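Q: Hi! First time asking for a complex rather than a single chain. Here are the components, and I think there are two in total. Is that enough to go on?
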Amino acid sequence: MSVAALPAPASTAAADRRPWLGRLTVVELRKMTDTRAGFWLLLSTVLITAAAVAIVVVVADAPDLSLQDMVGLAVQPASLLLPVIGILLVCSEWSQRTAMITFTLVPARSRVMLAKLLAALLLAIVAFQVAFAFAAVGTALGGGSWRYSAGLVGQVAVYTIVPMLAGVAFGAALRNPAGAIVGYFLIPIAFAALVSIPAIDGIAPWVDQTRTTEPMLEPGMTAQEWARFGTSVALWLGVPLAIGWWRVVRGDVQ
Amino acid sequence: MGARRWPRAPAAATLPAMIESRGLTKRLGGRTVVQDVSFRCEPGTVTGFLGPNGAGKTTTLRMLCGLLDADAGDAAVLGGPYRALPNPARRVGILLDAAAQHGGRRGREALAVSAQTIGVGEARIDALLDLVGLERSAARKRVRQYSLGMRQRLGLAHALLGDPEVLILDEPANGLDPTGMRWMRELLRDFADRGGTVLLSSHLLAEVQAVADQLVIIGGGRIVAQGSRDELLAGAGTLVMAADDTVLEGALIAAGLGAVPAPDGGFIVDATPEAVGHAALDGGVALTRLGPSDGAGLEQLFLDLTAPAGIPEEVLS
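A: Yes, that's all I need. Here is the structure of the assembled complex.
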């Protein structure tokens, strides 16, 4: 069979136009879900979220149940597991060496990175909505209170989304999947231990993300709490992202 | 050693270069792995980029595709830097490493992801799977389960996704069985005959000789010979064999003919068969074989490249 016998590719208009960012984002979403690891991580996140909600509904008494607490609980699996999906989204390009394909198809490497961040953002938003829906179902089944302050929605959404983006950033900065996963979970803890040294513990409320994210699941975050959260995001998302971006855009792809 | 006899300069340009390497140089870890590599590939030709493992083929191809930055020199694909092509896969098909696919992704899905990236309809995927001889059942398997030969087939389908006019393939025949190699040769020949441009690398002379009409031979990071295959084979002189090599060598020296030992015994002589026959007659040597070397000289050059001790001095940096 000859190459000439092949059907010409559809949509020849796209032949000499660079793929737009929306399409690259859809491709990155696809890459997160079409591998065995990606599929099981996503399914695990959904199942663990459902299980957590179900356990609370069964165990807790109705008067103690509220949508607000339920949402805070339901987003926990996502905030822990989504970063791993984010890490793998970038690291697998290096560990599975698909970076060679990705960056020959799209030589503008910063567009690929942007697409990965957008894909991570979209997936995290969906994960937040799913967690919220599970929490609502759990509240209804358990006969809990529907008390929920509107301002909290944004706080919890940010609480769920930022770790996923930080996962992408750690993945880009460290490249090795195991190293990035360990680094993502351990470096902030080690850092928190470091800043608990009395001489410098004044900065701990600003950089220890366990502390900066604590107020996010309660309504009415203050400006100072947002400032502290923002500072820790700059450190744990901004810095690795800048390093990772620089490495991807400037470096040789081997 | 006869390496200096080989043409080094590219032939005079007639057709536009689809791929052009101009003095590409790359240093990695303090070592110059590619030095001043220049060649061009024209439409309708298959160029074999030939060299032993570690000669700098892969590094050169990756510089052409914009994955590695050159330390000196530059490369042009379709008249400009590869990275300046808006949607490169629609014009240039690339297979740099068949093993570089996500093991946890199904074969067909790997093609579909790339097809979506470059805006090619999924209809083309099935036709490509047929073309490269991957069964539907194989395409549904995860790439981890693929043999290297299957990965090469998948990789070639991947390179052809965007209906390109240029193909850049790094060791595409690795892992293919003899039938697969023959099939790939026919496919690449057909691609070039329809006006396409193919650049493929290999560390096996015989494999490249069978399909390429242009050869670029690299050793130790530098180009040691290049030109059309026919030119290189014709320039290879006369192969002569006798029962006793020592007597034969004496006769050749007495006749003033330059000779180098051939890979399988005998000598490659820089003269016509007639002149060699006269030399043997004068020396009273009974010949067991006399004729054009048909690339035996090329093979010797290539063998010398693969044995570090035999690399001509100027090739070692």
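A: The first strand of chain B starts at residue 19 and ends at 28. Let me know if you'd like any chain examined more closely.
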